[in-house]
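Reading a protein record of the kind used here takes little practice once its layout is understood. The reader may check this reading against the record printed directly beneath this paragraph.
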Amino acid sequence: MRKIFFILVVLVPVIALSFPFNHMGQGNTEVPLNIQKDSSSEQMMGCIGDCAACHSLTPIEAQSILGQKFDVKKVLSIAIKNGYFEVEYETSDGKKEKINLFFSKDKACREVIHLNE
């Protein structure tokens, strides 16, 4: 009898209340913290779509970063792509190569592999 009482009185409410109530967007939509529903001011969180507003890379900086591991004679162009800088450079052999340098500036790869496609 004690086990049944414990299950009904203690465990069922604890388990029921441990799940979020707003399933699949039904009911009142939750507003992120520090943003008021009727506020006219707009608050940006995370990526706003203009990568160059927060991330920049100069040709000299790209050459010093990539020159540690790759044969970079001259940086030809830097383009901002989805989450990385696409750096086109010339090697000492005169070949043009492209490499992707992530915004963290500590990782580079020849091509970006999208895991969600």
Observations:
- The beta strands are 74-81, 84-90, 96-102, 108-109.
- The radius of gyration is 26 Å.
- Residues 70 and 117 are 29 Å apart (CA to CA).
